[in-house]
Design a protein that fits this description.
The protein is mainly alpha-helical. The protein folds into 2 domains: 5-69; 89-269, hpI Integrase, Chain A (Orthogonal Bundle). Helix content is 52%, strand content 6%. The protein is built from 12 helices and 3 strands. It has helices at 5-21, 35-43, 50-69, 96-105, 108-120, 124-127, 161-168, 188-201, 213-223, 228-235, 239-252, 257-269; strands spanning 135-138, 141-147, 154-158. The chain has a 3-stranded antiparallel beta sheet, with no helix packed on it.
């Protein structure tokens, strides 16, 4: 099982649904090609919600893969199921106008979360763990040294002026850089939910999530001197996707367009 509580809950939920639907069928039916149709018919129960439809198939195949690995099935024929849910979030970013509207009404603890996300590109699970122990001095300033929760990779993130303000304003007796309104530890869900609540109160697009601050961060990191390859590796993106995100951000952020696009063109030229 994965470590995340949300992921564990999803696996449990869909595993139980799968078990309930196929409880009267012998496991060996999945060794027959016709079982693919049976599985598609089951996940079609959620055709009204493409995301749930695809989730049903993902977790069913996960179970079947486990069964093959454990020798309980010789094989199965449900690989590479057709997916209904497709979304390109490269064009969903927090623009300066969005952040200004958010910051105008959100409390300080929520503003700090969004700012840190926009300046670092870290996922909520990594943001909520940031402490002064992650800060390193460099010849040119400071940086964060973080082993990311999802990929277990070390990320070295320049501390921008905006992020420096948050860090330096953190009370000296507080371990965590980001907390809730009471100064207590956040969960990834609460951090995301807090930003969502104040996003709604600011009448911003309901498509914007805390995760989409990573597009803003990619642009910040390019401006801070990271290569396109370094940004892509940090974000867990392809180089092409990282370039698309940065280019879109520049086009919807007039104040930064020219400078960002010039740097992006140079970065693209340096990619083999």
């Amino acid at each position: 099982m994965p470590k995340g509580e949300r992921s564990q809950a999803d696996i449990r939920k869909w595993g139980l649904r799968f078990a309930e639907h196929f409880k009267d069928a012998p496991a060996v039916i999945f060794e027959e090609r016709g079982a693919r149709g049976e599985l598609n018919a089951w996940r079609a129960l959620w055709k009204h919600s493409p995301k749930q439809h695809d989730m049903a198939g993902t977790h069913a195949v996960r179970i079947l893969n486990w069964a093959v690995d454990e020798g309980k099935l010789a094989e199965h024929h449900c690989h590479k199921l057709h997916r209904l849910y497709e979304v390109d979030r490269s064009e969903i970013v927090w623009t300066p106008a969005d952040r200004e509207a958010f910051n105008a009404i959100a409390p300080e603890w929520a503003r700090r979360i969004l700012c840190a996300a926009c300046e670092t590109g870290l996922r909520p699970a990594d943001l909520i763990k940031l402490t002064s122990a992650h800060i390193e001095d460099t010849p040119g300033g400071r940086r964060l040294r973080v082993r990311t929760n999802k990929r277990k990779r070390l990320a070295h993130i320049p501390i921008t002026p905006a992020l420096a303000e948050i860090i330096d304003a953190t009370p000296s007796d507080r371990l965590l850089i980001l907390t809730n309104a009471n100064g207590n530890r956040l969960t990834p869900h609460r951090a995301s939910e807090g930003v969502r609540q104040w996003r709604d109160k600011a009448n911003l697009s309901d498509e914007l999530r805390l995760y989409d601050a990573r597009g803003t961060a990619a642009t910040r990191l390019l401006n801070a001197g990271l290569s396109l390859a370094e940004i892509a590796n940090h974000m867990g993106w392809s180089i092409r996707y990282a370039a698309n995100v940065i280019e879109h951000y520049a086009r919807v952020s007039p104040d930064e367009t020219d400078a960002v696009l010039v740097k992006l063109a140079r970065a693209k030229g340096g990619v083999a």
